[in-house]
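Figure-free illustration: sequence to structure, shown twice.
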Amino acid sequence: MSTSQTTPTPADAAADAAAPAASAADPRLLVRRQGLGGYAEEFRRRIKSGDLGSLPVVIGLVLIAVIFQSVTGHFLQADNLTNITKWIAGPGLIAVGVVFVLLLGEIDLSLGSVAGVSAAVTSVLAVREGLNEGLAILLALAAAVALGALHGFFFARIGVPAFVVTLAGMLAWSGLQDYVLGKLGTVNNINDGIVANLDTYFLGDGDVLYAWLLAVLAVAAFLTAQLLDARRRTAAGLPARSTGEIALRTGALAVLALTGAYMLNQDRGLPLPLVVLLGVVVLTDFVLRRTSYGRQIFAVGGGVEAARRAGINVARVRISVFMLSALLAGLGGLFIASQQGSADKQLGSGNVLMSAIAAAVIGGTSLFGGRGKTWSALLGILVIQSITTGLDMVHAAQAIQYMITGAVLLAAVVLDSLTRRTRTAGRS
């Protein structure tokens, strides 16, 4: 009987390079039979090993939607769902950067402050100094990258723990944000400017064609990638997904994408913030799964010494990751400024950083490094924003929102810890 195997993750590839002598019980060597029986068998194995992937998050999103729809009666209305897809862009972009840092097994506490500095620099240069807004944005993002490089240098070259470096950065850049904004403390966005339009712009001015087009292109790209991957694996003599399995997976994505396009078109069409967030998630997912740089990130997160012995420049990888996360935080700060209509001293403070970290962990990225994907940031921020929006609709106090979000985060971390313990026990 022919067999198929789940595509290995970059972490698996890195582990293979560092330790070729895998145990016979290694789950990476297990194959899955074709058909529904093979899926059921693999599902039972994953449940037994604690490797649930994105399943808990998907179930959580369904439960959140059902609960709030039953309570409010209009949670699933098109205008509310459109607003959710807009509001997740800022913290979602920061969460994608958090995923990269967590893959190293580290943490960056400065990203909220970096987002605030980026928004402050853009507003001051464009509004107060009269600089071209596009150039002001580029300079602000360059400043964010420089701050990330500084964090990475002290961590990777000097040896200061990332927690301490980024904690210092959080305090210092908050002060820099305050200094840049000056005594007034708030700078309104330019009317109909680039930053102002980041949150309010809909592609084609609400034309329904754009949402349908994005859905069709996403499905076509997924199908093409699956077929090319199967062809490469078959040519290399490796187990590959069958045509029926590829068709099933593509069909499921098509239903999800077309349903989303239909709901968006019932309101104002395709929002720019959603397009940007999805584009960043897809691009960074490609970098992590399909490039040598992505495999190096997983390798460093899986074991620094093993990565170093495999010839990886650990310091360079670490510094570049902190630069990338700061860049995404700076971009996220611009979307937050667009959403609230101005840059002020509070932007990036409060629960912005905690929501981004929680989103990455809730979505399935491990706090212990070496396991995760950027799609987890999207799923996690959807959970958090859905909870926040639903509780706002029932007029719950902010304290209740914090407690519920904290409980969800704790549950995700507990699940991550149990999964890691189960895997460790299975390999010992």
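We now fold a second protein in the same way, so the two outputs can be compared directly.
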Amino acid sequence: MTWSDAAELTGLFVAAFGAATVLPFQSEFVFAGLQIAGAAPVATLIVVASVGNTLGAVVNYILGRGGAQLASRRWFPASETQMARAERLYARWGVWTLLLSWAPFGDAFTVIAGLMRTPFGLFLLLVAVAKTGRYAVLAWGTAAAIGA
């Protein structure tokens, strides 16, 4: 692995991590760009992006564990509307909502999971499955789009 390869994978990790937090990142374009460029095997891209995105969700979980008093802060990863919607869905569907953590509104579920004191192991398992599935589908879609 060259320095350039390491830098590309580090950039993907940072973008994926940021995309799951309050930072304004989009990891899909970075992922697809690296896949199209053949920067690394697709499985490597999926693992790097999934780990980064899952760890970003862990930050949200920790913020949620910090308490509801942080929810009014400007930097909080979910708006009041997102939080209210996530709380309603979490009350109805429980931890299974974490399987939607890959979606744009899914970050709120990861915060709510912390607020609701979801066991960390269960949180990590469900979020990792959701995030990995997201990047696997993205890899498949990118390959289909470029005819690979």
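Summary for the second example: The longest helix spans residues 120-146.
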